[in-house]
Amino acid sequence: MTTESTLRFGAQTDEVTSLLRIVNLVRTGEATTRPEIGKVTGLGRGVVSQRVDQAIQFGFLGEGEFGASSGGRAPRTLRFRAEQGRIIICALGAAHIRVGLTALDGDVLEHTHRAWDISRGPEKTIEAVMALVDDVLKKDSNVPVWAVVVGLPGPVDFASGQPVSPPIMPGWNGFDVRTPFEERFNAPVWVDNDVNLLALGERARRRDSLADLIYCKIGSGIGAGLLSEGRIHRGANGAAGDIGHVRVLDSTAQCRCGKVGCLEAVASGWALVRDAEQAIKDGASSSMAAVVKKRALTLEEITLAVRSGDPLAITLIQKSARVAGETISALVNMFNPSVIVIGGAMGSAGEVFLAEVRQRVYELSLPLATRDLTITLSVADEREPLRGGAELAREQLFDVTFPRWFADGRPSPERVAVPA
Description:
Layout: H1 3-8, H2 14-28, H3 34-41, H4 45-58, E1 61-66, E2 76-80, E3 86-92, E4 96-103, E5 108-115, H5 122-137, E6 145-152, E7 156-157, E8 162-163, H6 178-185, E9 189-193, H7 194-206, E10 213-218, E11 222-228, E12 231-232, H8 263-267, H9 269-281, H10 289-294, H11 299-307, H12 311-335, E13 339-343, H13 351-364, H14 367-370, E14 374-377, H15 384-400, H16 402-405, H17 413-416
Parallel strand pairs: 3-6, 6-9, 10-13, 13-14
Antiparallel strand pairs: 1-2, 3-4, 4-5, 7-8, 10-11, 11-12
Helix pairs in contact: 2-4, 3-4, 7-15, 9-12, 11-12, 12-13
């Protein structure tokens, strides 16, 4: 049986295993010449040469420049052909849509965004997303799409790609997000919580493939992406990290999820807007009072008021940070991360917010858990969820499903689907 036919039937022979490994060694930069591949894999020179030729024939590898000489003839480097496919990332938030196009190495080639209310429902939202995707593809239409990633601002069952009772997304519960994209692009599609994409984006930015990191997004909602040794921890059903609905002691605030006392109902952006408007109506002095008289306040206006020294805004932001810090401290004790990244709109309040979070985490967490802990703000790069989406797609394509579609030269929904 030939290597191609063996791969098509999914058998894992030694030949197939070494071929896949060589492609991934070159792709990740761990080994980029034939001699380096031999050292890493322990394969003989003739076997390495044969496998590399096969990988070139399949179209995954190409010849690069000459490398440094160690005394003899300089070896020619190999490169992964990242230009042969594209990854589409659609990062949806409560009030926006962001779409990007990357090469197979995760490099963002094109991106665009627009304001959008996620509560308008799945059909209208996906229609708007497709229009943005068409816009970015117009500039790069000749290269096939290899994968699509969709990030949603709510709980997602990762296996099915379906949202599960998302509080701010009416009409989305159980909606089949995956199929419209599979049918449109004939490519595998992964759907995940948006904060997981941000955590993966942070991993890519830090170039730390084994990061123990928690990304906390605190904006209109609250959620956390958990990285353990570089891998997203989703839990049994994808609900891991949904800290926005952890109960806050003694709170009776009504949450959008229908429960009472959730962290989100006390410390999120919409909770702060609610509390600021009520305080101003009750007579509190604030520079935001003029806005409240005319229209509804926004979280951005509260964070801007913090920067200008508004006492009410500072009090509310510090309260949010204290309560959020208490919940984050529980994650620190359980997961022992080396880094906590605070992102989302609340992070734009800067050190006023971050200092309070740090204080509560260090007060309430175990000394060993905080000994080497760094707590920092995100870089607030709008491309971060796009890079994170590309990381997710590359991980799924090349680490998880590669043997099932390698011989086809590109992935398809059928090949990537988990075998029955």
